[in-house]
Design a protein that fits this description.
- The structure is a single chain.
- The protein contains 12 helices and 11 strands.
- Helix 6 crosses helix 9 and helix 8 crosses helix 9.
- Strands 3-2-4-7-1-8-11-10-9 form a 9-stranded mixed sheet, sandwiched between helices. The protein has a two-stranded antiparallel ribbon with strand order 5-6.
- The protein has 395 residues and is an alpha/beta fold.
- 31% of the residues lie in helices and 17% in strands.
- A hairpin with a 2-residue loop joins strand 5 and strand 6.
Length: 395
């Protein structure tokens, strides 16, 4: 029978404003911390997955870390890549192709931009199918804005409801000492901010930060070797949708509508049983739409669902307790941070109020979702192009 698989280590590198480290440094720091968190050593690792750095991904990073894995993955499906990688790793471990797998990501996106080392890629290439959209100036944010406007037109979703997502993420971030922005904001603050792409104002768009993170996945027979409480992968699924907007059949439904139900069915868990949700939030509508697609509310009811503090710590469905990509951390791609946060919440890492953040500050007990036993981590890539979803639980 296939082996059960658990997340046994999870850690962040330095995050936020990181001017004294390279991308490789952040990868190394995150992996070292995650392996230490698991109570394992580098020699225990026989599987490795990363993307976003190197000429021959993931070989460059593996070499830098002095790893020689016998199982590797360098999948690239956008910001939700690491959920899809985790699905692959779980299958590999379950079937005995690897025992202990590390997933890692790190980026100095903010620092590089400040130094003039990179420029934003607004067109995502001009060859292949996307060449027919490039002349019209479609950027990633414009694609999300188009789908948002369609949802507003079709279901009556209001700009105030979308703003509540940003306000809720900032509310959660106030309890996270390493969140990039922690000062509370109001719906009026969101609505009166600079317009970026109608209907998105500045606060409805993800921040630009530096940072990295890593998780360690292990087979159930290796769990006794670890020092942490195992967070079991109960079910997982992934799905790809489109690249060109003309090939997207419904602008109001993303790939999580397929991947999510697959993950829940395999886990034998219903959405209403979930205690904490970690959902990619590059834009406010991205999170709202994904909650609909995952089955937390009916299609078109996402606006009313997020009202009343539903997504806040202490709410009916605490979502992105760290503050998400809208307030806490978004260094280019955020998918792996969702798995780190879900793991920490299910382990109860912050419950006693004595935990210390990576910057040395104490973490208040309010950061913990009390008694969390089940979580979902759902990462979406591109402009609703791909999704990977995992249902996680503790015994």
């Amino acid at each position: 029978m296939p082996r059960r698989v658990a997340i046994v280590g999870a850690a962040l590198s330095d995050t936020g404003r990181v001017d004294d480290k390279t991308n490789f440094h952040l990868h190394a720091q995150a992996v070292q911390r995650a392996i230490a968190d698991a109570g394992l050593t580098k020699d225990d690792i026989d599987g490795f997955a990363s993307n976003g750095l190197g000429t021959l991904q993931p070989i460059d990073v593996a070499e830098y870390l002095r790893l020689r894995p016998t199982w590797v993955d360098s999948t690239q499906v956008g910001g939700g890549t690491w959920e899809v990688m985790a699905c692959h790793a779980v299958d590999a471990i379950a079937m005995g192709h690897a025992d202990v797998v590390v997933l890692v990501y790190g980026s100095t996106t903010r620092a590089d931009l400040k130094r003039g080392f990179r420029r934003a890629n607004l067109s995502y290439g001009n060859r292949g199918p996307v060449q027919f959209e490039v002349p019209y100036g479609h950027t990633l944010i414009a694609k999300y804005a188009m789908s948002t406007r369609r949802h507003m037109h079709e279901y009556g979703t209001t700009i105030e409801q979308l703003a509540e997502v940003a306000v809720s993420m900032r509310y959660n971030a106030q309890f996270n000492p390493v969140a990039y922005y922690r000062d509370p904001i109001t719906i009026d603050d969101v609505l009166t901010g600079p317009m970026i792409a109608d209907p998105f104002t500045k606060h409805q768009c993800c921040i630009r930060s530096d940072g990295g993170c890593a998780i360690v996945l292990a087979a159930e027979d290796r769990v006794p070797d670890c020092r942490t409480k195992p967070v079991w992968v109960l079910g997982h699924g992934h799905h790809v949708s489109h690249v060109t907007m003309s090939e997207w059949p419904d602008f109001t439904t993303g790939p999580a509508a397929i991947a999510g139900p697959i993950a829940f069915e395999r886990a034998g868990i219903a959405p209403e049983e979930i205690d904490v949700a970690c959902v990619y939030d590059a834009f406010t509508f991205m999170l709202m739409c994904t909650l609909e697609d995952l089955g937390f509310c009916k299609k078109g009811e996402g606006g009313s669902f997020v009202e009343g503090g539903t997504l806040r710590l202490g709410g009916a469905l605490p979502t992105n307790p760290d503050g998400g990509g809208l307030s806490a951390c978004h260094p280019g791609m955020r998918g792996l941070f969702l798995l780190v946060e879900a793991t920490r919440q299910l382990r109860g890492d912050f419950a006693d109020g004595r935990a210390i953040a990576e910057n040395g500050e104490p973490i208040p007990a309010e950061r913990q979702v009390p008694g969390a036993k089940l979580a979902v981590a759902s990462g979406t890539g591109g402009w609703f192009c791909s999704n990977g979803t995992l249902v996680l639980g503790v015994d």
